[in-house]
Amino acid sequence: MIKAILIFNNHGKPRLSKFYEHYTEDTEQQIIRETFHLVSKRDENVCNFLEGGLLIGGSENKLIYRHYATLYFVFCVDSSESELGILDLIQVFVETLDKCFENVCELDLIFHMDKVHNILAEMVMGGMVLETNMSEIITQAEAHNKMEKSEAGIAGAPARAVSAVKNMNLPEMPKNINIGDISIKVPNLPSFK
Amino acid sequence: MPAPIRLRELIRTIRTARTQAEEREMIQKECAAIRSSFREEDNTYRCRNVAKLLYMHMLGYPAHFGQLECLKLIASQKFTDKRIGYLGAMLLLDERQDVHLLMTNCIKNDLNHSTQYVQGLSLCTLGCMGSSEMCRDLAGEVEKLLKTSNSYLRKKAALCAVHVIRKVPELMEMFLPATKNLLSEKNHGVLHTSVVLLTEMCERSPDMLSHFRKLVPQLVRILKNLIMSGYSPEHDVSGISDPFLQVRILRLLRILGKGDDDSSEAMNDILAQVATNTETSKNVGNAILYETVLTIMDIKSESGLRVLAINILGRFLLNNDKNIRYVALTSLLKTVQTDHNAVQRHRSTIVDCLKDLDVSIKRRAMELSFALVNGNNIRGMMKELLYFLDSCDPDFKADCASGIFLAAEKYAPSKRWHIDTVMRVLTTAGSYVRDDSVPNLIQLITNSVEMHAYTVQRLYKALLDDISQQPLVQVASWCIGEYGDLLVSGQLHCIILHT
């Protein structure tokens, strides 16, 4: 079982934290800090497995992590999960994020935390692996987004307009349109009573 | 009152904070705004406010006042609201009884919703944080969804069932009929979660285990199809067809085959096939091999297969990838009791791993080395282990010292060698030796009567060099007290000889 999935940056700022077992808010923050402390000490060329910190269950649980540029992806698992399998799972997760956000970077995770949670919910449920097929996950996440957009109503109109314009194939617009001086005579309209 | 700011705005604002105090101030201001918005029962912006609350929660600020708002969102008709509401429920809700009770009805309605995505959301939330009462009330709905033909819902229902069984084990029987044709599914997602469900049931109940043994031929067939099927773009990961499913099936086979001759026999061929045919150039291939090896070692496999498995582990030990080496050492540790001789063949590689730079690998190698020590190799192994004790991190020294004492006690070829080894440990890692070793050492010295003179002289010399290590000082002082006469009675030339 996966106990927790954490993403934080090189300074320990959390970008995503999902716990599949119940802990109090304080304990959760302590676990994040402790995990960052353990993982950031590691060299670049050592193995990606660590014994879990005391707060998350000690030596029975393992921390399996991958370091990509400025982000650490850490899965805390118990002994029933295959370590190499979880490494592959992290890879699939990151590749899925990459496809969904188009060359994902830390900023994407910062501003779209809820979307990342939704993608993760299609992969891991209740601490167990639900789906590992990348195209399946992406299809379902996109279906969810479509449903949200269709509900957005008036509030979503500007966003929809923007994305509609983005997707439109505009022919080449001439840069300088010189209409010249036009004097339009506005007729005097009778007033309506 | 102006519309509450969007989540994006909030994030942007918080990122401009230059100190922790500034950030805290911004968050408190926003929390106050959110609280008053909640008080006004504002339906339009509730979703936005809860989203902001979840963000602040992630950063570590208290957010429990939003719990009831999540419930209101879940009860709303809009998908957008439900989505954030369920997410909030999973992230924020604690074990409060009343909140769970309120949720049960909402989840029940959503489990029967006309839109599959809403059903999916409720299954997900129930499967993540459902309490035992909730699970008891809703198990029937989950069981119904387990039998649906919609594969999106079926796979979620399977994992939800696992959660229900974990919370309320008595309900396991209820899901038995629905498992009948789970394995005939074509959809890999459903297959994967079904195998997880079957694994959970077999691990919990020996009756279920014997009941599901009859599934072994079917599992073997599925595995065979995966290996032989050639390239299938939708499940391919680095050239291997759905490695995650293969690993899951291998694990279930392990549980089913353990202790049972017939099942073990039925899976022998496929295990040999996987072990020899899997590509090892990428991590996914190695993950499958690793699982295969563990399965071979756990079931009643024939000896040829077992030797094959240990040799695979031996190859792993020489792999450049540190993760593979770590995993190999872990598996060898599990098998060293049952297949001691086969593991002995790889002793030199294991001992080399003691010199690895990686702390996790060193620890595994140390444990394995101690397991491999026997009467034949004690001298050689002890040399390596003492060298390791000298150079390893302080975290290891206590365990290493205790291990060395144990090994020396069991296999010491001579009393003099034993005393020398003990002395060596006391002088190199004296301050890390555990307190309970001291009486044992004193006992040992007392019993080796002919060595008293030698021992006390060496201990005295050690004290002359370094008097700071407490266990050493304790043992030495006791000895000098007991055998002081041997020390001073004109045996000085022995000290000079030994220097």
From TrEMBL, chain A:
Membrane topology: Peripheral membrane protein
PANTHER family: ADAPTOR COMPLEXES SMALL SUBUNIT FAMILY
Taxonomic lineage of the native organism: Eukaryota, Metazoa, Chordata, Craniata, Vertebrata
A Pfam family reported for this protein in Swiss-Prot or TrEMBL: Clat_adaptor_s
Family classification: Belongs to the adaptor complexes small subunit family.
AP complex mu/sigma subunit domain sequence ranges: 1-147
Record's GO cellular component terms: AP-3 adaptor complex; cytoplasmic vesicle membrane; Golgi apparatus
Name of the protein: Adaptor related protein complex 3 subunit sigma 1
Domain of life: Eukaryota
From TrEMBL, chain B:
InterPro entries per the UniProt record, alphabetical: Adaptor_Complx_Large_Subunit, ARM-like, ARM-type_fold, Clathrin/coatomer_adapt-like_N
SUPFAM superfamilies: ARM repeat (SSF48371)
GO biological process: intracellular protein transport; vesicle-mediated transport
Superkingdom, taxonomy of origin: Eukaryota
Localization per Swiss-Prot or TrEMBL: Cytoplasmic vesicle membrane; Endomembrane system; Golgi apparatus
Domain Clathrin/coatomer adaptor adaptin-like N-terminal: 23-488
Gene Ontology CC terms: cytoplasmic vesicle membrane; Golgi apparatus; membrane coat
This protein's record includes keyword Transport: yes
Keyword tags: Cytoplasmic vesicle, Golgi apparatus, Membrane, Protein transport, Transport
Membrane disposition: Peripheral membrane protein
Family: Belongs to the adaptor complexes large subunit family.
Identification of the protein by name: Adaptor related protein complex 1 subunit gamma 1
